[in-house]
């Protein structure tokens, strides 16, 4: 009889997890992101999981070992009686170009925690996962000048922003009739976005004002998914996926404090409100030959164009993202059971942000490549993905980013329980 023995490995995995998170906190959010100054910041449109090397193409993707949350319906594909845990981190280097960029400060780099997920099969047809991941991030710092009155004089300014919104989620996928799965992800979004704007006259001047602006966001958020999958013949399998999230709202608590040169508050204001998250849609397809070669494609769309900006600096527009991916899975057969030993991946993506700045939409495009190895005598596995992309433009006094990224996903997998099954 096999007894539940995964908890000793689980302790090791959790110890590693929390150690990595603590270490990364000191190095996190060092990348300067100019386009995070507006809206909710940079929305996380990629997934740091098995699909990262596929350019996060995974609406129709299903896998029995990994926790795929691109579409919650995929969780019904998990193996029965197994428990899985995954932690994802990402390193990124950015080079900036454009008129506003200083030649002495044109690069940045960081390494950040991106995902922690635990999952298992609750029942034969019901897969479930819980986790933590960023929903949006804001991080920027720059100096400049602003007009002072109507006489043409200028005054120095310093601008800083940091923070973001986090997502705690519970995803579930349930299979019907062996070919259809539906899923739902219930999330709680929470976090704060903080900005600081300082204007200061020349040395010795009494002109100094510091405006500190903090907005807290929180609320529940839901998105849904469905997958249909079947064998076309003995060589080809196909999977189709759809995802949808209805319009939601974030409750906001807004605080503004203005300080003078002696750090004395000369004005403060607090108010509450809401921020609308528009509805989103997505569709994907996955085609596999001989259980080895998989071709994938995704398209996502979100209705940000219905939003209204309260400033002249930018406007909203509908965001969209398209991606394709290709994967080769290497498998072996032992004891009449086929298992995966390794895989390699490649992908392409294009996305258009929800922001239009100076009349220009902010576009992002790039390529990815990845590989993964499942250990033979250990419940641990490793997935590494590389990324190169270009975001933004130098037109209309904007900034272009050339960036390199490397994602690392550490996975743990072991028996959850066996209901006392015996082996002769």
Rg for CA atoms: 24 Å
Structural class: mainly beta
Helix-strand pattern:
HEEEEEEEEEEEEEEEEEE
Strand order of the largest sheet: 2-3-4-5-6-7-8-11-12-14-15-16-17-18
Q: Ranges with pLDDT <50 over ≥5 residues?
A: 1-6
How many individual β-strands? Answer: 18
The description of the largest β-sheet is: 14 strands, antiparallel, barrel
Please work out how many helical segments DSSP would assign: 1
Average pLDDT metric: 87
Beta strand %: over 45%
Distance separating the two termini: 9 Å
Morphology: elongated
Q: What is the helix content?
A: under 10%
Your description of this structure?
This protein is mainly beta. Helix content is 5%, strand content 63%. The protein has a 14-stranded antiparallel barrel.
Offer a few descriptive terms.
single chain; 424 residues; mainly beta; 14-stranded antiparallel β-barrel; 18 strands; 5% helix; disordered N terminus
What are the SSEs and their pairings?
Blueprint: H1 6-25, E1 42-43, E2 82-97, E3 107-123, E4 126-148, E5 153-176, E6 180-200, E7 208-231, E8 236-245, E9 248-259, E10 265-277, E11 280-289, E12 293-302, E13 314-316, E14 319-334, E15 337-357, E16 360-374, E17 380-392, E18 400-415
Antiparallel strand pairs: 1-4, 2-3, 2-18, 3-4, 4-5, 5-6, 6-7, 7-8, 7-9, 8-11, 9-10, 11-12, 12-14, 13-15, 14-15, 15-16, 16-17, 17-18
